[in-house]
Design a protein that fits this description.
This protein is of the alpha+beta class. The chain contains 13 helices and 14 strands.
């Protein structure tokens, strides 16, 4: 019997973030910037807090292990040389230590690639932050590779650092010993065994499906319709815009905050969902930005990639990616806020009726059987940026206040990843009665980021007051 057992191999989606989407100008990590009340804890206290909870997320002590000749997808293996000081780093803001300086620091951190020879995450403790009321605050900047975690599971994983009360007892750090690293032969053998097991499992699933032909026909019909919708999207590439250009190496970040109750009031009065309100606000903000650049926007729609989580209730907190990409047209040229919202609702209803998510899930399931070399080519097609102009992700967060070492977390700013020729990405996160709309942008392609942020704020306020 092998002396090594690591059951987790990267999924097809996870592997695509390593093999295709991450290029020199597109680091593939996501994360958040949180702000907490009070003075920053010492680096020693913060590291002790993190290490006491790392056993809840064992993947954070694991690195990538590659089999020889790309004979199988890489696996996660314990990092025997794991050094918490490399992953948890203290830093202080330059004066005056406000939000501008924090955004600039976070932009520099998220511009840098993660070291693939180590576990794929970093956590920065930021001292020297001052609130608008002059009181002391501190920030934590967390970034993790998208192959490690998706947005939906990222919120669950992040919350292991937080407590529900300010006086929660701090657990002792349990002992940890790294499992022996796999040899190349073991990696190749484990990959072959898992491939055979996957094929056998697929055969069993096929037999079960054939035993219920009505259910099989229904599921296959939905999946085929969804795949057909994705094929039609390939046949009609996304419209051109100044947001779809070659990217540089530098990132800039910003966030705008709204009461969650205002988002809910719109959808309760006019139908739709909180996500529809979000997409309508994005459409208004993008329209304002392109209008300021002199581009024609009247009557125009741009196509947004709207990732949909496929996680079931019992998968919350699991690492890895369980997402499907759907595509919706957003009316960037519509000036009337209610008409813009109605079109966003209609567009997402069309997406749901088309079965795009099921089609994307079917394609992803087939990719699980592909060898790595073929999978890399498939991911280039499946994640083609010809299909969309920008990404809009919506991640539900905790509805109650959280505490970090006794300090209340007052704000959570999400950070998304840019993909090739997409100069901006939008991420919405809800937390404790508010939603935070985060924008990650290429610094060279979007030097006018304040115009976009103002446009988002105005689009939301117009919709709320309408």
């Amino acid at each position: 019997m092998s002396r090594w057992r690591h059951p987790d191999r990267l999924s097809a989606v996870d592997y695509s973030f390593l093999s295709h989407e991450e290029q020199a100008g597109t680091p593939t990590h996501i994360g958040w910037v949180l702000i907490a009340e009070g003075p920053a804890p010492t680096p020693e206290a913060f590291r002790a807090h993190v290490v006491a909870r790392l056993h809840l997320v064992p993947r954070y002590r694991q690195r990538l292990a590659y089999p020889p000749l790309q004979s199988a997808r890489p696996r996660w293996a314990d990092d025997a040389a794991f050094d918490l000081h490399y992953h948890v780093r203290p830093v202080a803001l330059s004066a005056p230590g406000g939000m501008t300086e924090l955004r600039e620091l976070a932009g520099r951190i998220f511009s840098q690639h993660l070291d693939r020879s180590k576990p794929l995450w970093e956590c920065w403790l930021v001292d020297g932050l001052t609130g608008p009321d002059g009181r002391q605050r501190f920030a934590v900047i967390n970034k993790a590779h998208h192959a490690l975690v998706d947005g939906a599971s990222g919120v669950d994983i992040s919350t292991v650092l937080f407590d529900l009360t300010p006086d929660a007892a701090q657990p002792d750090a349990p002992a940890w010993t790294a499992l022996p690293p796999p040899s190349p032969a073991e990696l190749a053998a484990e990959g072959a065994r898992e491939t055979i097991a996957t094929a056998v499992g697929a055969g069993a699933a096929t037999i079960r499906a054939l035993a219920s032909p009505a259910q099989l026909a229904s599921s296959a019909g939905h999946a085929l319709r969804g795949v057909g919708q994705i094929a039609r999207a390939f046949a009609s590439p996304a419209p051109s815009s100044s947001l779809n250009v070659a990217l540089g190496a530098h990132r800039q970040l910003d966030w705008v905050r709204f009461p969650l109750a205002d988002f809910k009031a719109v959808k309760n009065r006019h139908g739709g969902t909180v996500n529809d309100v979000y997409l309508s606000v994005v459409a208004g903000g993008v329209g304002a930005l392109l209008r300021s650049r002199g581009e024609r926007v009247d009557g125009r729609e741009l196509r947004a990639c709207v990732p949909v989580s496929l996680r079931t209730g019992d998968e919350r907190g699991a690492l890895g990616n369980r997402i499907a990409e759907c595509f919706a047209f957003l009316p960037i040229g519509e000036r009337d806020p209610l008409a813009r919202y109605a079109r966003a609702v209609e567009s997402m209803a069309d997406v749901k009726a088309s079965g795009q998510a099921m089609g994307a899930q079917a394609i992803a399931a087939l990719q699980e059987f592909a060898p790595p070399a073929l999978l890399a080519q498939a991911s280039r097609i499946n994640n083609s940026t010809r299909l969309f102009n920008f990404v809009c992700t919506n991640v539900p967060g905790p509805p109650i206040p959280l505490y970090l070492l006794g300090h209340e977390v007052i704000q959570v700013g999400p950070v998304g990843q840019l993909v090739e020729r997409n100069a901006v990405v939008f991420v919405l996160v809800s937390y404790n009665g508010h939603v935070e709309l985060g924008v990650t942008a290429d610094a060279e392609a979007v030097p006018d980021l304040p115009v976009l942020m103002n446009g988002l704020t105005e689009a939301a306020e117009e919709l709320f007051s309408a």
